[in-house]
Structures are given as C-alpha cells and as structure tokens.
Amino acid sequence: MKKRISFLILLFPFILSSQIINVENLRRVTDTTGWSGFARLDLHLIKNRNTIFGFSNRIRVQYKTNKHLWLFVNDLDFREANSNKLVSKNAQHLRYNYRFREKIALEAFLQSQENEIAAIRLRGLIGVGLRFKLSKSEKYKLYFGNLVMYENEKVIESDEKITNRDWRNSSYFSMSLFPTKNISIASTTYFQPRFDLFSDFRISSQTTMSFKIVKNLRFATTFTYQYDEFPVLGIPKEQYRLTNGIMYSF
C-alpha cells in the first residue's frame, strides 16, 4: 500500500465556490458606534496522489453611527491542484445603510466580482431597497431585506463572450444567535429572481458558527450553499463549500 501523507492548515477541503457574496454574515451585528471589522486568512495544503494548495483572504471594515452604516468587503479566493486552477475569484463590495426609523433602514450597495472558474469575467451590481429589523432581544437578531438591483455581467460560454444586463429582486432573511458569551451563529439566505423571467433565479445560503479562542481571535466554521437555475454553460446548478479557519476581529 502506498504511503499517504496529508497536511491541513486552517482549512477543511473545499467542494466548490459560491458566486453570491453573503454580506449579511460579514456585517458586525452590534449597537455600538464607531469602527469595527476583521481580517481572516485560510490556508490549506494536502499531499497524497495530488498536491492541493489554496488560500483565501477576507477583509471587512465597518463604520457605524446612530443612523448611518458603511461596510466594505474585499474577498480573495484561490485553489489549485497539481498546478491546475480549481478556484480563482475576487470581489469588492461597498454597502451603505441609513436608518430613518427605529427598525427600518434604507440600504444601497455597489459590487464588482470576478470568478474565472465560473466563467464570470466581470459581474457589476448596483442596488437599493429597504432593510427591516424583526427582533428586540440581544440574544438573537433577525433581519429581512428587499432590494432592487441592476446586474451587468460578462461571461464566457462556449468560447463566446456574452454580456447580460438584467434587473433582479434581491430578498434576504438574516439571523444572528448568541447562545453563550463565547459562541455565535450567523445565517443568511438570499433569493434573487429576474423581474422579467421569474424562473431565472438564484438562491444562496450561508451559516457560520464561531468560537472565541482568546480576545479578538475566534475559530469559525462556515457552510455555504448556492443554487443558480441558469448558470453559465458547463457550470453546475448547485455549489457548496465547507471551511474552517481563524478570524481576527476588532
């Protein structure tokens, strides 16, 4: 029997990568004003019959006042096996909230995204809508958002460059649970159909459980699931991913 050697650094082997950025799970759920954020780095190296290497980096910076919130996210993800790319993507997201009532906020965002493996050369999004707070308890927080967004997407399908320009609805339900002082659970599900063709829709769900290690340092496990009814030709409708990593927050 051949000897098998495996190395794992901060990351459970991935399955596939999602295409919708789940900003809700990156939002700092707090009533405290000022700056906050985190930087997360995941690495993995697996050696058996194949050599698999990967890394991902996620930075989130948030600034909040009594009525205003700014959130910026920069996301980078790369995987390769035997020098062949399996995942190569990056995204930038800027979001603004203005709370004009106690439980209602105006929400707007800009997003730029590339995903080479999913044949997305560029996906630009701009959207605006309303966000509703559904809870009062500090042990759990529930939110619902409904936005209208415009999508400009350039993809490669059968060696042909295609540009899609669509208007979509983007609805989401988000919850954050704090069962103990050192454990938190955040989960968000998005539903994004086209206005002119409702059967063309995307679903994205992400759940993260994190445990406090020491002050500002946490261990996080994240499961992401995505479904796209009309993906680029050759890309599966369903994609999912499981990761473990270290997260530093401030």
What is the rounded distance between the termini? 49 Å
Q: Please state the overall shape, judged from the principal axes of the Cα atoms.
A: globular
Using the CA coordinates, give the radius of gyration: 19 Å
Count of separate DSSP helical elements: 0
Structural class: mainly beta
What spatial order of strands do you see in the largest sheet?
Answer: 1-2-3-4-5-6-7-8-9-10-11-12
* Percentage of residues in helical conformation: under 10%
Description:
The chain is mostly beta strands and 250 residues long. The protein is built from no helices and 12 strands. It has a 12-stranded antiparallel barrel. Strand 7 and strand 8 form a beta hairpin.
Features:
12-stranded antiparallel beta barrel; disordered N terminus; 250 residues; 0% helix; mainly beta
SSE inventory with pairings:
Elements: E1 34-47, E2 51-64, E3 68-81, E4 84-101, E5 104-115, E6 120-133, E7 140-157, E8 160-180, E9 183-193, E10 201-214, E11 217-228, E12 238-249
Antiparallel strand pairs: 1-2, 1-12, 2-3, 3-4, 4-5, 5-6, 6-7, 7-8, 8-9, 9-10, 10-11, 11-12
At a glance:
With 250 residues, the protein is mainly β. The protein has no helices and twelve strands. Strand 1 and strand 2 form a beta hairpin.
